[in-house]
Amino acid sequence: MMQNNWNILVLGICLAVGIAVLLQEFRRDKKRLLGWRILAVIVAVVALACIAIPVSYQTEISGSGQSEAVLITDGFNPDSLSIYKNIKQFTTDDKIKARYPNVVLLDELNSISVDSGIIQLHILGDGLSEYELSQLNKLSISFHPEQFKQGVTAVNWNARIKTGDQLQVQGTYKNSSPNKIKLLLEGLGTSLDSAFIKPGATAAFELKNTPKISGKAVYRLLTISGTDTVDHGSIPFRVDNTTPLKVLMLTSSPDFESRFLKNWLSEKGYAVALRSTISKDKFRTEFINMPAISLENISGAVLDKFDLLIGDLSALKAISPQNSSALKTAVTQNGLGVIIRADSTAGNSWLQSSFKTQSSQGRDTLAYPILLQGNQQPLAALTTGQFFIKFKDGIQPLVTNTRGHLLAATSLAGNGKLVYSVINNSFSWALSGNKVDYAKLWSALIQQAARKALPAESWDVTTDLPSVSSPVDLQLKSTNATIATVGEADLSPNQNPLLPFEYHYQYRPKTTGWQLIKAGNATNWWYVYGDDEWQSLRKLKKQADTRRYSISHPHATGVTKPLQKKATILVSKIYAYILLLLACTFLWAEAKAAGAATTSRKGQL
Amino acid sequence: MDKQGAAYQHIGRIRRFYIGCRFAVCLLLALSAASLLGAALVTLFSVSLLWVPILFLSAFIGQLLYQKPWIINYEAILNFLNLHYPDLQESGNLLLKKHDELNLLERLQLSKVEESLTNTPVRQKQFLKPLKQAGLVLATSLVVGALLITLVHRKPGTGLLGAVQQASKESKTTEKILPQITGVKLTITPPAYTGKAKRTQDKFAIEAEEGAAISWEISTNTTVKQVSLLLNNKQNIRLKAIDADKQTWKVQATVNQPGFYQVNIDGKLSDLYAIQVMHDLPPVIYIKTPQPYTYIDAGEAQQVNIRAAINDDYGLTGALIFATVAKGSGEAVKFKDYKLDAGISFDGHKPNYDLQKLVKLPALNMEPGDELYFYIQATDTHQQQSRTDVYTVSIQDTAKLLIMDGIVTGTDQKPEFFRSERQIILDSERLLKEKDSISVVQFKNRSNDLATDQKLLRLRYGKFLGEESESDIGGDDNNAVSDINNFGNADVIKDQYTDKHDNAEDAGFFEPGQKAQLKATLTEMWKAELQLRLYKPQDALAFEYKALRLLKDLQQKSRVYVAKTSYNPPPLKLEKRLSGDLSPIKSTSLKQDIKPEADQLESLRKAAEILSQLKAGTSISAQQQQILNPANRQLSIRAAAEPGSYLAAMNALNSILSPNKKIKQSDVILVQRAIQKALHAAAKTPAAGQNSLDMGLSQQYFKNLNRSGQ
What we know:
The complex is a heterodimer.
Chain A: H1 2-27, H2 34-52, E1 56-62, E2 68-72, E3 88-91, H3 94-99, E4 104-105, H4 110-114, E5 120-124, H5 130-134, E6 140-144, E7 150-157, E8 160-162, E9 167-175, E10 181-187, E11 190-197, E12 201-209, E13 215-225, E14 228-240, E15 246-251, H6 256-267, E16 271-279, E17 282-288, H7 300-303, E18 308-312, H8 313-317, H9 321-332, E19 337-341, E20 356-359, E21 368-372, E22 381-382, E23 387-390, E24 396-401, E25 406-413, E26 416-421, H10 427-431, H11 435-449, E27 458-461, E28 472-477, E29 484-486, E30 489-491, E31 494-495, E32 502-507, E33 513-519, E34 522-528, H12 535-552, E35 564-570, H13 573-604
Parallel strand pairs in A: 2-3, 2-5, 3-4, 5-6, 8-14, 15-16, 15-18, 18-19, 19-26
Antiparallel strand pairs in A: 1-35, 7-9, 9-12, 10-11, 10-13, 13-14, 16-17, 20-23, 21-22, 21-24, 24-25, 25-26, 27-28, 28-32, 29-30, 29-33, 31-32, 33-34
Chain B: H1 2-45, H2 51-67, H3 74-84, H4 104-119, H5 125-151, H6 160-172, E1 181-189, E2 199-201, E3 206-209, E4 212-220, E5 227-231, E6 235-238, E7 240-241, E8 248-255, E9 259-265, E10 268-269, E11 273-278, E12 284-289, E13 293-296, E14 303-311, E15 316-327, E16 334-341, E17 352-360, E18 371-380, E19 385-387, E20 391-395, H7 398-402, H8 405-409, H9 420-433, H10 440-464, H11 490-497, H12 512-533, H13 537-557, E21 588-592, H14 602-613, H15 622-641, H16 643-657, H17 665-678, H18 697-709
Parallel strand pairs in B: 3-11, 13-20
Antiparallel strand pairs in B: 1-2, 1-4, 4-8, 5-6, 5-9, 7-8, 9-10, 9-11, 12-14, 14-17, 15-16, 15-18, 18-19, 18-20
């Protein structure tokens, strides 16, 4: 479309220029060599047009001949060039051109596919990016990559974390060198964590740090061999503040555990409602950071006001049957979370049916360190009493102690989650001033159970390692989409035909660093990496993309290929330049000669 | 003759070469010894380097005297040559004989050999061999010495190397000063308590003792109107011109707080300079003996040896032992305080003292049963005091141990022989008292008798533990078997003569704790018996008392008090239970709003984000400045408290914040580092997870799943 417009535009301008110049020629006084001059003008204008518009012609070519070409990309092995000595060699990299002067430098990969004399393309080196491959117009290629030797082969981290969460950078590294490789996580000018990769090994690494800052930040992963920094990559992430939850606590009697939990939650600004039974049908209620409501009757309407219900088993069982079914609906339909603190109450209500407790053999009153799931470092020791949860299918362990006793577990209940805990004296940590472990334990339990927020819209960057060299795909999940803006550019949405709430935007970043994309109310900060970062990952991605492309566009072998084939062959622009130069030279020389003739004539007079 | 002379001279050369080699060996060995010993002394004992040459000289002389290389004579050399050069045909020694003494054959042989003698090389390889070995020794000792110096951890400033490092560190930092200033002379007068001399420096950064007087003398190259110092961005100290040109300015101030200051010349402010204050630490006292709780048993010497080390950073002026003696028991306890002087002179105000004092307890009017509490208090030159924990020494009360009270009045559940340890003690004491009035044989006999008693007692107790006895001691004569009533009763006979090995260990039915104590008692009895058998009742007494004390404890343990019960609760009326009228009781409700504490460091947390966006070579925008300004204030508070770690960052942030300056990347990193250091880890708070947006797809799926399940 664009190309057509361009052609028409060029032809129009050239025609106009041609007519104007020809008119000038006719108006000229000196009519000497008029025919030649007109011819020169026409040639000049045509040549000008040919420079702007690529000219090609169709011809019959035989299958053998010059149908192959080599594209040399970065990271190729110079020795491998010798095999392709007699074939046309292209490159898009001016550094390669500088080293091998007889290699043809291309501005655009397009020109290879336009020249249909080339049927198959050999690609040497690391290959092309997805965007570059799309410019090949389905030209069949065969890919000859170099073996990947050294570098980060995969890396991932939690790019959006909440205050107090740990940033975990995990990945694998391939080290073929005889040196030990040090991976260093650096942030705010400080070394935060490091890992070592043994010589000649491919190993997984994990670097951890709890960021102290809030907002957007960029840490860096440095690859150090000896004292040299071999590779580096940015690790952009965001630290968001937590939004306080609304918690309802029910206890069958006032106890320390709920009292300390209430105090801890309320001093963090959470909304807490606490109802503890003090006598038959008599309750003591407390409302912190929220308006007082009636808690005599735990109806569905009351439950909908909270994100989380924490209660001991006897208090939860004591609520009336219709309220109990309202609780079940609130959990299974509306996603309310329940943390059930086990006590000795037996029974088989739906709250405890997934969790069976068993008592440990013998009297074991020792305190054992507590382990949170997915966290290697044990918390302080805690006596947990005789009972622990029996593991069975359908529950996920959350908290264990070092003896392997399961102390808290979770199970799904429809949309919501049930967390069952036998820990009833974590307040002893708070009492002894161990606020860190107390916060870790209860954060883990509450985070697991709390009703999940449903965002109105969410953004994702689906391109790996966005950079300025290729377009980036940004994905918005929203009920409706509008024009998005990044900087000053407006982007139009492209709806996914299968998932109607998914929209894609294409954008070519202009600068590196943090970028803000905005579509209506949905805003998102995302990061554009510099071209020199994560070299090894880019290399691997290019290789994988090119390999995939080469598999999906295989080279047609000699048997299926027709011997004679019509081919479009591109005319080199150099001819047009030469014609233009010749025509212009003639016109200039003629004008000079005519001028000289007149002056000499004047002299004679 | 000529030739013979030449050969003789040649041998002389070989000898000289040999002696030279030996000298060189001595030199190398002495060098290696000096380097090794020197390194060890310097690193481990911080000895001055001056000792190294002395060591070297003495080692060298020692080696020379030991090896005596000059003692070698021509004969030995010729013997050596004879051994190693077959050409000489064992006739080299002929050279030493006088020409006239040689017979014809010898003369012929000499003239034959002389040629090859002069041809032997002067540089004998054999001579060089020890030289090589000595070289090797020197190399290894140098390596070991170097390792010693590098590996052994050294406190900075204690030895020569530390001082060098410190000096190089000091000279590294360069200060930026205002262009008007040509020189500064800072005189720091440390306070009297430090005992340090006045010192001057030509730098603005100050490191001074607490309470030091500092005088600035700033000279400028032009006449200036006003020079002042801006302390911590708040306090202004004006300098006075002391010359007519107004080019030399002076002021004096006392430093008590750390912080930073700037020099202000006619309104132009300089860089920030740190003031670091070294606080005087209170003395540190470490008591080596006695233990925090010491128990002096009967028979042991009634004295305490107090040994303590007292250290301070500048000097000590005194130390006292505060002792309190507690007498009596129950309500009649009386306390008496004593102040014991440390017994050493503190006139030198030295930083380290070793205190040693022997306290004789009877001198403090202490008797058995009394307790002594004491602590040590030390005062340093800055009048700072510190004291130790209270240590307790108590003397065992033997009188109480022998009291029969508990045993006579209570129900006595133990057999008669339980009391005889007390009897043995009384007998031993009596024996000791009568020692002078009885004969030696008699004394020894009685001591031996007591030992036998002690043995019997031990065996009796051993029975409780199931120990096998060597004889049936304590078995009553009228045993069950000889009783006429038991005639033909097989059980009784079996009981007497069979070995009940299956429950022998638990014969006493004692708890393990009680058993352990019984065993300990038996051990003490063993020791007592030993001393008695050696005719040393005095030494045995201590063990006897110990055994008695343990036995008493055992007796007390086996007593159980059960109170008489007489309360009969009325029976519950179950139909009335939990049926009271609760309607007047109102439920309590409480409502409060608790605001979460504002984070003091929020500004610093936010500043980090802005800093990471700053690019080198640009200048700061007004919006960014707005966010960074509160962070600057936070940082300046930090810098005032700890100028050493935050002042450089504050300087950097100031230069970033100045609107017309280009930002330097190094400044940004410096500030970032300070922020990372100043912030403490954010506390974890629970947060809800997020569902992914799917327009109710998963809800629908769940609904359909439920329906199909039904």
